[in-house]
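Re: beginner question about structure tokens

> Can someone show what the tokenized structure looks like for a real chain? I only ever see the sequence side.

Sure, here's an example I had lying around. Input first:
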Amino acid sequence: MWQRLTSPFRALWLRVQEPRKQTTVYFFVYLGVTVLGGAILADPPRSLQGTIGQLLVMVWAGMLVLGGTTGLLTVLQGWWWLERAGAILCGFAMAVCGVAIQALPVTQLSMRVVTLSLMMLALLLFVARLVKTRHYSYDPEK
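And the corresponding structure tokens:
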């Protein structure tokens, strides 16, 4: 009975692009970026709205939603040509956030360093994915 229950999940798991564990991690990264963008659209941060303006905050959140959704829908299948577009949008959105944080008034230097470091780590995550997928349009093993 247990094998009958796991069979559909196993079939889905075997359809995920290799390396499956790494691909699954990126799936959840893209999911997190999509949720982040949706949260920003629903309730934009007032500190950034005052610094860079409401329009740029909405464009930034839109880039997160569009890039995250694109990556989310393409990463498991190995459609690298389309996933790259999502990764570029996500990476650019992280860079915009980093620049916007620099424009905020300095209240606590350590918090600025922490936030910028997190933005840099997120940006590098997408750069790493772009480096992995740069030579092919699709997963060459599929």
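Each token stands for a local structural state, so reading them left to right follows the chain. The CA atoms of residues 92 and 123 lie 8 Å apart.
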